[in-house]
Amino acid sequence: MAGGLAREVTQRLVRAWLNGDEATPVDYPAWCRCEDTPAERRFTRRLNDARNPAIADRLAALHAAGDSFFAGVGVLHMTGTQALPGLLRARGFDVRRVPFSSNP
Predict the structure, then answer these.
(1) d(CA 4, CA 90)
(2) 104 in helix, strand or coil?
């Protein structure tokens, strides 16, 4: 993804996250202009979709073991049909964005 497009896509994802908009990242493949070729689609699937189910399984296992933990993931794990929040919800978790304020 070229510089200008990468900046535009990143800004859109950041705005969506700041506004609590889950739909925009989930719909990422439709608007990112980063899945135009079969090679780009394979790359995205390998980068995100193929890894997210294992991440969701690991978080569920940590929770089931009674471990306390904090999980931080990059915004691309919130994109597409295998978005991490949806996978966690499917495993019975109540997934909510925790808003924050930049004011101390």
Answers:
(1) 36
(2) coil
Q: What is the DSSP letter of 35?
A: -
- Nearest CA-CA partner of 25 in 70, 68, 73, 58: 73
Residue 43 lies in a domain: yes
The pLDDT tens digits of the residues spanning 66-80 come to 988 888 888 888 888
Structure tokens at 61: 């296992």
If you average pLDDT over each of 25-29, 51-55, 100-104, which comes out highest? Answer: 51-55
Do the domain assignments include residue 99?
no
Q: What does the alpha-carbon distance between residue 34 and residue 16 come to, in Å, rounded to a whole number?
A: 18
**C-alpha neighbours within 13 Å on the C-beta side of residue 86:** 14
Structural domain for 39, as ranges? 3-90
Specify the amino acid at residue 18: L
- Which two tokens mark 63? 């929770």
